[in-house]
Please model this.
Amino acid sequence: MIRHKRWLLLILLIAFAVRAVAAITVQKRLESTQPPQQFLIAGDANGYWELAENLIAGKGFTVHEPPRLAMRMPGFPMFFSMLMLATGKSMLAIRIGLALVGTLVVVMVYMLGRRLFSESIGLTAAAICAVLPPMAGFSVLVLSETLFALGLVASLLALTHLGDLLHSDGSRRQVTLIGGLAGLLVSLACYVRPSWLLAAPCFVLLVYLFRRGSSSVHLAAIAVFAGLFLSLLPWAIRNQFAVGRPVWTTLWVGPSLYDGLNDSATGDSDMTFFERDNLMATLSEDEVDQHYRQKAWTFVRENPGRSVELAFAKVWRFWKPWPNASQFDAWWMKAAVTLTFLPVVVLAAIGIWNQRQNPWAVLIAVSPIIYFTAIHAVFVGSLRYRLPAEYPLCVLSSVGLHTVWRWCRGNA
Model:
């Protein structure tokens, strides 16, 4: 046990060191441009920065003009505003703070691997996540992916614990507490990125499929949904007063949906239509959201074949081994991401085969990337949206690596 703790400490030190180097490298690169840049991926980062500044200034959770009151979930802007206050808005210090979040995700991956399989699997999974270039690089960008990954893996850990309790016929009190905690953690992830909202019903379905013999399975489902509902309720109440109805996520779903489903869509994100249409000048935020939802579904009804083509294009962009964005167009960046992502996928496939008699554990680790593949076949596809789901996938990559190691030793 002491030896395992020493290995974990070493892995975490390496994870933080790699991310600290990434923070310094990114900051120096941005400062060296003419004129100097503040963000590597400016669109979303500018919005988060403005929201955080408005929160600090006491202007409320609002961004842009005309004001948008429910464009984003509040989790990352609130966390980012605390980082800004703690660091005096020093970008390098903020990036170091984000590097600490990335290191915490490595801890959660270790805990998930240990609970699903074994201590050694958890350590190896953490080691993989510690050094993967995309995970290290994105950890220090002003984007929500890494904080979201922290909530995602934490919720998976709670849901795994809940499944184990049902398998071992844990007490009703334990099932209620862990189920409620699982719902809470799903909601905390949703406070960062609302796309995780359907994870709760999906995992309840898994519980019914694989733990249906437990006498507490219905109680577990109720506890998960109760935890999710009660945790998101304050945001819905806030939106009732802010925009006139209890919006449980955001009023940016419509524009995001239309971004991926329109006559000029390619599978990539291109939100220029929003400024061009300028609907916010005449319609409320809620009306704009509904307008673009209707336009997106009208496009699907009128262009079913093109919608299917776009779905395949988005899935390809989601799974493409190298980055899509122009900011990462350098050959060495593409090579670094490709040469690390492909082994992760191949080893995960080996891990799935090795654990085919353990479907519960396999599905816990692989379902997030399947889930987001489906989500982004509708919206738009990018490596960014795949990245949070790669963390649990690395648990299966760890299983695959151990399997290959045993094969090699057996043939030696």
